[in-house]
Write a structure and sequence with these properties.
Elements: H1 2-26, H2 33-39, H3 45-56, E1 73-79, E2 88-94, E3 103-109, E4 120-126, E5 132-143, E6 146-160, E7 163-170, H4 179-187
Antiparallel strand pairs: 1-2, 2-3, 3-7, 4-5, 5-6, 6-7
């Protein structure tokens, strides 16, 4: 009787011990975006855009509009690779409380543009400058915990002034940030900015 009670006690103590370790590890908070993103090479949008513009010695225009969803953080990055084939400017707008609120702009020289042929094209749109924009779907997979929700993104591709633009939005907010909203954002590049990036 004593032996079985001791074994039961050891089991209970062990269970609480390992449960405490698992709880401690799973309850550890991820690093805040303002710590994590700068370690990955992100900085202010203005600084990254200036680096990109100076490297390519070519003006860079960004849209003035943003999607009608809330963001808590904005970051920019000039991604420069050794072979130069993936050099691009990246802008990330995120919400650390609402992960699906993620909007991204990627701009690269048209000589290094992504080919969109063979992709899942959702439609084409005429921009106000007369150019055509193509909306494609990237990486759509069903959420195993919610069969009516999908992960992935919609991306609007278009070219102007030697750049290829890619405006992408998380599929989970595609009902709010519709193709028409992305087209309006693309068209806002043509409005004069309050102050140019120097």
């Amino acid at each position: 009787m004593m032996k079985s009670t001791s074994i039961a006690m050891i089991f209970v103590v062990t269970l609480f011990y390992f449960n405490g370790i698992v709880s401690a590890k799973t309850s550890e908070k991820p690093k805040p975006f303002e710590e994590f993103y700068p370690k990955s090479g992100y900085k202010s949008i203005e600084s990254a855009a200036l680096e990109f513009k100076h490297y390519f010695k070519q003006p860079l225009k960004l849209p003035l509009r943003v999607p009608p969803i809330s963001f808590t953080h904005y970051f920019g990055r000039f991604q420069h690779t050794n072979d130069g084939m993936n050099d691009c400017f990246i802008l990330d707008a995120l919400n650390d409380k609402v992960p699906k609120n993620h909007y991204r702009i990627i701009i690269r020289p048209t000589e290094q543009k992504w080919e969109i042929k063979g992709r899942n094209v959702l439609g084409t749109y005429r921009l106000k400058n007369g150019k055509t924009a193509t909306l494609i779907e990237f990486g759509k997979i069903q959420n195993p915990n919610n069969k009516s929700e999908y992960f992935g993104s919609n991306a609007l591709f278009f070219e102007r002034e030697g750049w290829q633009y890619n405006l992408s939005i998380d599929l989970r907010v595609a009902n709010i940030v519709t193709p028409e909203v992305l087209v309006n954002i693309a068209n806002s590049i043509d409005y004069p900015a309050e102050r140019p990036l120097e």
